[in-house]
């Protein structure tokens, strides 16, 4: 059976891949296979990958909202758009959790022109710039032109010293991160030129999905018990992650939830964080 991806590409439906993604969310192998069995009668040749995901998500949500939230992690990160402003702040938060000092939206004068930088990080006296490339499509890929462009900006900045976290500091490394994936040529160019990449699944075992699970930094946008409007209210308060939501005493105030709904949100959040 063929399925149609968001990009329009037609590929063979991979049952094992669906089961694996459900297990990765915390579902047991038995439950994952049961979900596959339950949705199969609704599948047809040419069905969209989005529809397959939706069918599996709805079944998983009945069993465990926390597992459904993990299963929807990629969609949750994409919901940090559409402009990518919240995505930049989310990436900054991930680096903070790894022990970096972080600054966002910094303006610096390069050797030739001025630059607005998404993120600057510092650890062990080394400073790096991070540029974020956000895509609204789950199937979009960042091609080789983007790391080429980012590297040219880095080269215009790394010869000067600045007052950033302290005086007389120099940017010595450059990162490019995206919420989707990189093309093989983009990876090849980055590896050759010394540019660090971070995407949904790159580097292998240390991509965004791995870091989120490792540091329990799930975005609030993956919660199943909140509406999109409620998530936006939280994001405007700089409540980016489920951890922030649970550990900020006044984070629920502007949501005006009923006691029952608040309890449901807290149960899902705690289950998500205490996997």
Give an overview in words:
- It is a single chain.
- The chain has 3 domains: 62 residues, no CATH class; 127 residues, Trna Endonuclease, Chain: A, domain 1; 55 residues.
- The chain is of the alpha/beta class.
- 45% of the residues lie in helices and 18% in strands.
- The model has no long low-confidence stretch (mean pLDDT 94).
- Helix 1 packs across helix 2.
- The two termini are 34 Å apart.
- Strand 5 and strand 6 form a beta hairpin.
Structure in a nutshell:
With 275 residues, this protein is α/β, with parallel strands linked by helices.
Task: Give the fraction of residues assigned to helices.
Answer: 40-55%
CATH fold annotation of the largest domain: Trna Endonuclease, Chain: A, domain 1
Q: What is the β-strand count?
A: 10
| Overall CATH class of the largest domain | Alpha Beta
- Taking all Cα atoms into account, the compactness measure Rg is 20 Å
In what order do the strands lie side by side in the largest sheet?
4-5-6-8-10
Please mark out the parts with pLDDT under 50 across 5 or more consecutive residues, or reply none: none
Count of the separate structural domains = 3
Q: How confident overall, as mean pLDDT?
A: 94
Give the CA-based shape: globular
């Amino acid at each position: 059976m063929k399925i149609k991806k968001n990009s329009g590409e037609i590929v063979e439906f991979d049952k094992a891949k669906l089961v694996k993604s459900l297990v990765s969310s915390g579902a047991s192998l038995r439950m994952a296979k049961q979900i596959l069995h339950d949705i199969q009668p609704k599948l047809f040749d040419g069905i969209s990958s989005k529809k397959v995901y939706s069918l599996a998500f709805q079944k998983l949500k009945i069993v465990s909202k926390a597992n459904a939230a993990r299963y929807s992690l990629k969609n949750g990160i994409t919901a940090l758009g559409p402009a990518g402003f919240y995505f930049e702040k989310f990436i900054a938060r991930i680096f903070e959790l790894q022990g970096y000092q972080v600054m966002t939206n910094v303006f610096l004068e390069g050797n030739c022109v001025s630059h607005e930088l998404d993120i600057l990080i510092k650890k062990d006296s080394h400073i790096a710039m991070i540029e974020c490339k956000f895509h609204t499509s789950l199937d979009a890929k960042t091609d080789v032109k983007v790391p080429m462009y980012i590297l040219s900006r880095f080269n215009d900045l790394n010869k000067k010293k600045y007052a950033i976290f302290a005086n007389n500091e120099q940017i010595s490394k450059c990162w490019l991160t995206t919420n989707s994936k990189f093309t093989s040529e983009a990876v090849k160019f980055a590896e050759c030129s010394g540019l660090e990449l971070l995407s949904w699944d790159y580097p292998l075992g240390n991509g965004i999905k791995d870091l989120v699970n490792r540091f329990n930094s799930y975005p609030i946008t993956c919660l199943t018990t909140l509406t999109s409007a409620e998530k936006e209210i939280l994001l405007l308060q700089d409540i980016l992650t489920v951890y922030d939501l649970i550990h900020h005493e006044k984070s629920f105030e502007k949501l005006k939830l009923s006691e029952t709904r608040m309890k449901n949100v807290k149960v899902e959040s705690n289950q998500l964080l205490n996997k």
